[in-house]
Amino acid sequence: MIKILVLNGPNLNMLGKREPALYGAETLDSIIQGLRKLAGTLGVELEHMQSNEEGVLVSQIQAGREKFDGIILNPAAFTHTSVALRDALQSVTVPCVEVHLTNTSAREEFRHVSLTAGACLGQIMGFGAMGYHLALTGLVQYLKSGRGPGINQ
Ligand code: DQA
């Protein structure tokens, strides 16, 4: 069975309370619950982990090499700062989809650069919690069918 690791970075444990006008009112638990339902429908196994610490996320990505077929990652603020996360993604062969709730290109300039996206299969942003669903659907299809049309990696 296909196994997917969902990783969420710093402050995403605060979803629901954190700037709801920007990030929505839904909690991370509720988002993951919805994602687990979709995983069930798609017939894949899903493991979720959230951490506020960069090193923990690096270790999870490294461990993902053995245990998972794909990764869905919202690196949150580390997107814009972390060479370590990018290097971790590049050191594993597991395809990763980067997700952002908001469209970071439409926000402050320091959010326009993603250090991690270049090491990913693709990126989905601006669709709120639905972005995780889009990522899971796309990633599972990619894994089931191999390189799909439009996927140039
Ligand atoms: C975010 C965007 C990041 O710029 C920000 O630091 C976050 C959340 C998003 O999901 O929109 O924490 O990754």
Can you describe this structure in just a few lines?
The protein has helices at residues 20-23, 28-42, 54-67, 83-91, 130-145; strands at 3-8, 45-50, 70-74, 96-100, 122-125.
Index terms:
5 helices; five-stranded parallel β-sheet; alpha/beta; binds 1,3,4-trihydroxy-5-OXO-cyclohexanecarboxylic acid; 153 residues; Rossmann fold; single chain; globular; disordered C terminus
Structure report:
- The protein has a 5-stranded parallel beta sheet with strand order 2-1-3-4-5, with helices on both faces.
- The chain starts with a strand and ends in an 8-residue tail after the last helix.
- The chain contains 5 helices and 5 strands, in the order βααβαβαββα.
- The protein has helices spanning 20-23, 28-42, 54-67, 83-91, 130-145, and strands at residues 3-8, 45-50, 70-74, 96-100, 122-125.
- It has 153 residues and is of the alpha/beta class.
- The chain has a single domain, classed as Rossmann fold (3-Layer(aba) Sandwich).
- Bound molecules: 1,3,4-trihydroxy-5-OXO-cyclohexanecarboxylic acid.
Number of helix segments?
Answer: 5
CATH superfamily: Dehydroquinase, class II
| Bound molecule kinds, no repeats | 1,3,4-trihydroxy-5-OXO-cyclohexanecarboxylic acid
Instruction: Provide the CATH topology.
Output: Rossmann fold
N- to C-terminal distance:
23 Å
Total count of domains: 1
CATH architecture: 3-Layer(aba) Sandwich
Q: Helical percent range?
A: 25-40%
Specify the structural class: alpha/beta
Largest sheet: 5 strands, parallel
Global shape: globular
Strand order of the largest sheet: 2-1-3-4-5
| Topology, number of strands | 5
Kindly provide the radius of gyration, computed on alpha-carbon positions and rounded to a whole number of angstroms: 14 Å
CATH class: Alpha Beta
Low-pLDDT stretches are 148-153
Overall average residue pLDDT: 94
**Percentage of residues in strands:** 15-25%
Order of helices and strands: EHHEHEHEEH
